[in-house]
Amino acid sequence: MSGSNALKRFTPRKTLAAIAVGSVLMMSAPGVMAADGLGVLKGHITNQTGSDIGNAKVVIKHESKGIVKETTTGVNGVFSLKGLPIGQYTVTIIKDGFYQVQEQHIAITLGNALTFDVSLDPENSNVERISVSGARISRVDTSSTTTSQVISIEELNQLPVELDSTAIALLTPGAVAGDDGFGGVAIGGSSVAENGYYLNGLNITDLRKGMGDIDLPWEAIAQTEVQTGGVSAEYGRFIGGVVNLVSKSGDNEWKFGAKAEVAPDALAEPSIRMKDDGSIEEISDGYWQETEYNMWASGALIEDKLFFYGLWNPNEEEETVYGENTLRDKEWDTNRWFTKVDWFMHEDHSLGVMAFSNEGDYTSTQYNRDEDGGRGDAIGLTESTYGGIGWNAQYTGYLTDDITLTAMYGEITQSTKDNSGTLDQSTYEDYRSGSYERLGDWVGYGSSEAEDKRITYRIDLDWVVGDHTLRAGYDYERLEIADIYTPHGDGWYEYYSAGADNSYGLAEGTEYADLRIWGKNSETENVHTALYISDTWAVTDTVTINAGVRYSEFSNTTGSGDKYVDLDGQFAPRLGATWDVLGDGSSKVYASYGRYFQPVSPNTNLRMASAAYDSHIVSLLESVNADGSPVLGSEIDRRVVADGSVPDADQLFNNKAGSMYSDEFALGYQQQLNDDWAVGIRGVYRDLKQSIEDVSFNYGMNQWIKDNYDANTWHAGNGETSAEDYFVGGWFPTLTNPGIGTELYYDVDGDGVKETVNVSSEQMGFPDATRTYKAVELSFSGNVTEDFTINGSYTWSKSEGNTEGLVRSDNEQADPGWTTSFDYPELMDNGEGYLPNDRRHNFKLYGVYNITEDLSVGFNSYLQSGRPINAFGVHPEDQGYCVEAIEIVGRCYGRDWYGASSFYADGEAAPRGSMGRTDWVYNVDLNLSYTLDMKTAGLLNFKLNVYNLFNFDGVTGVDEQYEFDSGAKNVRYGYPDSFQTPRYVRASVRYDF
């Protein structure tokens, strides 16, 4: 052998450990190119003495697409190839005077830089054989401080894991499930509304509330990356974590397939509930079943150049819910599809286009129950549509060996329309007995129509300069939100029986009705722009510095099109360092710091800055008619929260306020013990430095008026004759950072000219918003035998403060940026403590055992400690901030308007999270998969997933309402109100050919 014809081939042993070890090692993967859904291959070429070899040719070939890319090493022997489609590659190293080296089946994954280091042997005509030495493939990226985990669809198919972003993210350390009220995943102590979700570079985060991603055809997803810390500067608009997806695409070989899956009601255990007497009963008369189909085709339209992938994914879900006197049949029909075309027009230039749909229809028919408990007369029909279209186009260009350019443009439209139900009937809900009872034959609270659109584009440039890898970019995003809501009938009636010492001064036992009339009609907009630059600097062979900064600007408009939020100057530094401890890429110590900014939610536009009307009319309740409607007595109280006009932009956001942001510090260590085992440890600290909350400044404004006007001569042209009375009875919200002073513009005296109102932080009365997260994560993965792979972690964490973040789990407010937290100072009395996502101990273990080549068993299990419990009651007048509030305006709004929403029980302080914890929860899921290889006829797979195998009924939440607004004790306080999902089964058959 001689010259370039001498070939040295390295063929490492292939075992299940490749999956297991990779799971831990990828827990420190780079963000480079991750936002584009592409991968990175890098390496270092030396000779036998360890000297760098420059100008060596590196040729890589995608084994299923046939595309080829070439580069050469620099004078330092280093090469880097970015923007690579995921898949397996053959890598060839060529240098005159040295034997050629080739390695096959090198897997490039999403967001993970694979390192391929080679020591070349010099040519020697006297050598008759080629020695195998000096090559190393490592997935410990010693140049990155990002903590992430990548899992492929092939791995997921071997595990009993639902195909959705929440279930996949929950496999990672530091991730906990959101409360049952709205689900989702909380990463690193943040709320479920503070994560970012991407597909092929397109932001697919829920447009309106940011609580998870939009509905996707998951069969089309090839790999999922979950970033839980140390996220690079290319990402922004979140302070939680990132779930990054890349789709499947076509190859040279045409492939077809189909899959049918059913979750049958007959194999599902009934759900459970707790009765008023404290006993648990099964809800045996319910029904739920889901059926899903997938059909796909992929291949090359032009070999090695133009590829196609297409998927059709219809889904049907049916549910019947039985009430005491009624039952309801529900049906969701979703007609999802996905397509992707990739054109490798040139070795250095490619274009990918993706489009998908998640449109569907929902139907609900409600019936009275007949004497036998079955369907009687139909009461009402609800029909609605939902979903929309998403698409993007992405260009990747290798301008030189050292410069890579990517550019992306995309749009997503999501809409819902529901104009059905009993349009002429009001809602009647009865709480007089101390628990909820539905009255009457009404169907639906109101009619709604919404259309949301996201337009986004970005451009990213990578440039390798010596020991520096520079990355810079710009991204733009515009959200257009349109919303109409009209209540049915008169509105929403709630009936109560007054308790002792109630906020209305009624005698105990007096019955009253609260009518809420609420609706909206608005179009608003959010715009987010950002610039970033980062540098990965190889200081030495073993030490790397990651430094970057992201600059962003956020704005929100009112329903009149005026900006009410306009935040700039948001500099988010990202800094990290890694040390290759042993110098061989098998281990590293790393540390990172990052700052992350969170925009004001579009949901806040709708709730605060739109043409909304919201009022409460409280009246004595004389009696209740047979149809549930009230016979009202005299009016007790009336308050207007919103009068239907669009508020002025200059009075909605505090001029002194800044952005919501959080800081993260992390320190970790990774070690690849051998080919089969890897371990890792990471400590993390997160601190919410500043939050944005909706607050009411009634108290502070009243004090300001007293300081600036003569109460004896005050007259605002609105019938008020006392400065002290001006704001009593109204609600005046603004967005601000709690704990600071406020500057707004109001026409206080009614003369047509707005005054500059400066209210001090002391006059505002709010504490600073606080939230800290401390955690230690231990992880391991490996191969117990050649056929048995496991992956596990233990996380100790503590989450404390006085705000969960954008949403609030303890009262199920899935209303980002608009929760009751900080509405009035007294609502924050005793509000510091353990937060709802504080799961102190969390054990996770999952894996696969291959019984034979065709038969495998997969499992997924967890064990986690309970969540903190609160007690919500009526704020006493003689304690906390209520004392000061009454002195200022003569009443305490957090008591009078919010009822039992304070951290008090029986008039005594009940600090946040101090009423104990729910029990530990444990769960085991199992699956069995069998594949029949029919040779040229294809592969036939049968799979059975069993979730909650042992049908554990762990409590995931309890009723935290200690008393009602009336002051009456809630007899169900502390009762479990949410449980683990009972055992259910998914069975599927799949055919690939």
UniProtKB/TrEMBL annotation:
<dbReference type="GO" id="GO:0009279">
    <property type="term" value="C:cell outer membrane"/>
</dbReference>
<dbReference type="InterPro" id="IPR039426">
    <property type="entry name" value="TonB-dep_rcpt-like"/>
</dbReference>
<protein>
    <submittedName>
        <fullName>TonB-dependent receptor</fullName>
    </submittedName>
</protein>
<dbReference type="InterPro" id="IPR057601">
    <property type="entry name" value="Oar-like_b-barrel"/>
</dbReference>
<keyword id="KW-0998">Cell outer membrane</keyword>
<dbReference type="Pfam" id="PF07715">
    <property type="entry name" value="Plug"/>
</dbReference>
<dbReference type="InterPro" id="IPR013784">
    <property type="entry name" value="Carb-bd-like_fold"/>
</dbReference>
<dbReference type="InterPro" id="IPR036942">
    <property type="entry name" value="Beta-barrel_TonB_sf"/>
</dbReference>
<keyword id="KW-0675">Receptor</keyword>
<dbReference type="Pfam" id="PF13620">
    <property type="entry name" value="CarboxypepD_reg"/>
</dbReference>
<dbReference type="GO" id="GO:0015344">
    <property type="term" value="F:siderophore uptake transmembrane transporter activity"/>
</dbReference>
<feature type="signal peptide">
    <location>
        <begin position="1"/>
        <end position="34"/>
    </location>
</feature>
<keyword id="KW-0812">Transmembrane</keyword>
<feature type="domain" description="TonB-dependent receptor plug">
    <location>
        <begin position="143"/>
        <end position="242"/>
    </location>
</feature>
<comment type="similarity">
    <text>Belongs to the TonB-dependent receptor family.</text>
</comment>
<dbReference type="Pfam" id="PF25183">
    <property type="entry name" value="OMP_b-brl_4"/>
</dbReference>
<feature type="domain" description="TonB-dependent transporter Oar-like beta-barrel">
    <location>
        <begin position="568"/>
        <end position="951"/>
    </location>
</feature>
<dbReference type="InterPro" id="IPR012910">
    <property type="entry name" value="Plug_dom"/>
</dbReference>
<keyword id="KW-0472">Membrane</keyword>
<keyword id="KW-0732">Signal</keyword>
<dbReference type="GO" id="GO:0030246">
    <property type="term" value="F:carbohydrate binding"/>
</dbReference>
<dbReference type="GO" id="GO:0044718">
    <property type="term" value="P:siderophore transmembrane transport"/>
</dbReference>
<dbReference type="InterPro" id="IPR037066">
    <property type="entry name" value="Plug_dom_sf"/>
</dbReference>
<keyword id="KW-1134">Transmembrane beta strand</keyword>
<keyword id="KW-0813">Transport</keyword>
<feature type="domain" description="TonB-dependent transporter Oar-like beta-barrel">
    <location>
        <begin position="330"/>
        <end position="567"/>
    </location>
</feature>
